[in-house]
Amino acid sequence: MSFIAYKDIIEEGDIVILYLGYDNLLTLKVEAGKVHQTKYGALKHDSLIGEKFGSKVTCSKGYIHVLQPTPEIWTLALPHRTQILYSTDISMVIYQLDLRNGSIVVESGTGSGSLSHALIRTVAPDGHLHTFDFHAERVQLAQKEFDEHQVAKYVTARQQDVCENGFDLPRIADAVFLDLPGPWTAIPHAKKCLKHMGRVCSFSPCIEQVQKVCESLKENSFQDIRTFECLQKPYEAKTIRMPIANLGLTNEEQDYNPSLGNITQNEGKDCFEFKSGCRAHIVPGHTGYLTFATLFDPDNAA
Ligand SMILES: C[S@@+](CC[C@H](N)C(=O)[O-])C[C@H]1O[C@@H](n2cnc3c(N)ncnc32)[C@H](O)[C@@H]1O
């Protein structure tokens, strides 16, 4: 099993995601003979071996679902060591950086490895991710997860302060991604690793950080500088009831189209009732700004 390939049947040693509810996901390594306690009681690892991914499995006091890990599910289940990127921003990053199988990507900081897993799946099997963090324990834990998830051959994790010391990867990268508190200080270093037409992306929660990044990108001859904010806009199907205006006409004369709705009564008044798509009241809010830019002809760029 790995995060970049699918399989049907759960085997010993596989990483599985236990789905206990939409906001309650757990990661588990399947080891024969072991028992794991969940809020639905004891789950015997042996009862998972040989089952299909996606199956409903019985615990001592109920049942849970057992899912195959993907980068998207990992983002929802991973242990948070830092703030992380979520799938809406991640999909924009991958699209705008034009990543594909074979791409070489440089990332900093690694943080909790949420973005790293999606980058690895995108560039594998022929590409590579070089991910940097200056925090020793975060690098070790990310490396442990890459090993356990069987993706280690597609990623190199290094401990390094990239703002001070850069990346030491001259002209190899198709893209550089920065999620750092002071990304503008890493832009000159990003420039040194990018190939002709390489793309850079910086993720920052504050607009002041974006301004500094844009200034640094311009000073370093990047072009096509654009900033996006990804906000989801979910819609819900709702019943709308609108009072019918009293124009001195009968309802038939007002010509309400019965295929669009019904005339009903509300507090003694005629209403036109119909189903419509409306914006959800609670929408996921601001995460950060994504600033993208392109570097043309890096050897001759000022
Ligand atoms: C917000 S986290 C990154 C989260 C990551 N994008 C994810 O999706 O899991 C920022 C990381 O940058 C690292 N960092 C901050 N400054 C750094 C620097 N100068 N060089 C390298 N890493 C740095 C921090 O240790 C932290 O782990």
UniProtKB/TrEMBL annotation:
Binding, S-adenosyl-L-methionine: S112, G113, S114, L115, D133, D179
One annotated Gene Ontology cellular component of this protein: tRNA (m1A) methyltransferase complex
Family matches, as Gene3D superfamilies: 3.10.330.20, Vaccinia Virus protein VP39
Protein name: tRNA (adenine(58)-N(1))-methyltransferase catalytic subunit TRMT61A
UniProt GO MF annotations: tRNA (adenine(58)-N1)-methyltransferase activity
Lineage of origin: Eukaryota, Metazoa, Spiralia, Lophotrochozoa, Annelida
Signal peptide positions (record): none
Pfam families per record: GCD14
Residues annotated as domain tRNA (adenine(58)-N(1))-methyltransferase catalytic subunit TRM61 C-terminal: 62-294
Coiled-coil features, chain-numbered ranges: none
EC main group: transferase
Sorted UniProt keywords: Methyltransferase, Nucleus, S-adenosyl-L-methionine, Transferase, tRNA processing
Recorded superkingdom: Eukaryota
Species per Swiss-Prot/TrEMBL record: Dimorphilus gyrociliatus
Family: Belongs to the class I-like SAM-binding methyltransferase superfamily. TRM61 family.
Function comment: Catalytic subunit of tRNA (adenine-N(1)-)-methyltransferase, which catalyzes the formation of N(1)-methyladenine at position 58 (m1A58) in initiator methionyl-tRNA.
Subcellular location: Nucleus
Enzyme Commission (EC) number: 2.1.1.220
InterPro entries the record matches: SAM-dependent_MTases_sf (IPR029063), TRM61_C (IPR049470), tRNA_MeTrfase_Gcd14 (IPR014816)
Catalytic activity as recorded in UniProt: adenosine(58) in tRNA + S-adenosyl-L-methionine = N(1)-methyladenosine(58) in tRNA + S-adenosyl-L-homocysteine + H(+); an adenosine in mRNA + S-adenosyl-L-methionine = an N(1)-methyladenosine in mRNA + S-adenosyl-L-homocysteine + H(+)
Keyword Methyltransferase assigned: yes
